[in-house]
Amino acid sequence: MGRSEVGQKDEVFQALKPKVTGIGEAFTRAGYEISLVGGPVRDALLGLHPHDLDLTTSARPEETEAVLHDWADAVWDVGRNYGTIGARKGDDIFEITTYRSDEYQRDSRKPEVHFGDTLEGDLWRRDFTVNAMALRLPDLELVDPTGGARDLEEQMLRTPIAPEESFDDDPLRIMRAARFASQLGFDVDYAALTAMQNMRERLRIVSRERIMTEFSRLMLGAAPRRGLELMVYTDVAEEVIPELMDLRDMQDEHKRHKDVWEHSLTVLEQAIAQETGPDGPVPAPDLVLRLASLLHDIGKPATRKFEAGGVVTFHQHDIVGARIARRRLKALKFDKATIRDVSKLIALHQRFHGYGDQEWTDSAVRRYVTDAGPLLERLHRLTRADCTTRNVKKAERLAAAYDDLEARIKELKEKEELDAVRPELNGDEIMAILGIGPGREVGAAYKFLLAYRMENGLVGSEKAETVLRDWWEKWHNSEPKGEKVS
């Protein structure tokens, strides 16, 4: 460890000590053991300030509550059946869990929780050695029975016990291995890799919500490519997003990559590179952009066709891919907004292609902006990231074309308020001009004026009224009575 890293670690420990000394003294005075454990210890040893303050104790939940009520500013039940009680002291939030050991029955989706009696026993039952270290309070004494500090130094993920036994006790650890590979940038040792592959079907007993949470954390990590490659290499992806497996060994239509899987990973990395700071339009890390980048070509296997001359095409893979992504994300229990936004970006990601060859009309630009809506900034980044050609001139040409499109969007936005494209006459004005009340005719008129605005831009209220009256006369005379307006 270098001198600067040692300094960082010392700084973290100095900042950490006053946060946890008080709670450590409160529990030891009451006759109980308590230690900072897991991720916070790992991060502190890496010289990173812990975001969470997770502790483990010999006290049972009701005993933990009794100690906390005399010390903390607030106490609440996080999961009593799992031994976890929450507390707040000043600005610091703590989660305190009784020593325990968890295991799944063969056909159960929920682990059985057994409270333990020793810190060492609690550490041996944890997922990986780098998460199986504790700092005994109040003195911050390191407890490391499984060799976690060594593995942290080697940047290796190993299980404290045999990986087959560990993954059998908690199959979700298979996903955690991929997630920590992404978050920490660590490798997974060969024995664990083999167990991940051989035991991947055990993930079927784990709830989709828990798998979704681990997969989301993987995608939001510093190196999601590493975790995704691990999932595909071990066939774990077959149990989570099987469509990723189909992307391997597929030549794309331009023969730029050995397979669409490699292209998808490159697009993901290039999209991540375009995420912004916290005050920018797409703050990092952005789950929607990352999911859309990974899945943007997920429709290619279903649309692949071999044409004359050995040409491979994937016509409408954007539309098909959006449907596949929507179905898969729904099965994984993602929230409705994420499903909607990711699938919409996938459906739109091909829209730009062809702009460089034939400049769009202002109407086409308006529709591009309106269809993207609040996803426009993400669509900009996804479209740019989708250019992975090794042909420098072609890449420069595509970048210049998109620069031009963004410039036109900016110009039209300044002139026409494109972020809120709507007819120049609202519903009340339409009813007043046409002398009609609320009903389907108002909706038809509104749609007509919106389409006119898209095609012609801002024309002023007088012109809008004129074209509305002309449309109304033609529509009213030609619309068969009782026919539904589309």
From TrEMBL:
Keyword annotations of the record: Coiled coil, Magnesium, Metal-binding, Nucleotide-binding, Nucleotidyltransferase, Transferase, tRNA processing
Taxonomic source organism: Mobiluncus porci
Gene Ontology annotations of biological process type: tRNA processing
Record-linked InterPro entries: Bact_CCA-adding_enz_type3_sf, HD/PDEase_dom, HD_domain, HDIG_dom, NT_sf, PolA_pol_head_dom, PolyA_RNA-bd, tRNA_adenylyltransferase
EC number: 2.7.7.72
Necessary cofactors: Mg(2+)
Domain HD: from-to ranges: 260-401
GO terms for MF: CCA tRNA nucleotidyltransferase activity; metal ion binding; nucleotide binding; tRNA binding
Coiled-coil ranges per UniProt: 395-422
UniProt entry tagged with the keyword Magnesium: yes
Presence of the UniProt keyword Mitochondrion in the record: no
The protein's name: CCA tRNA nucleotidyltransferase
Alphabetical list of PROSITE patterns matching this protein: HD
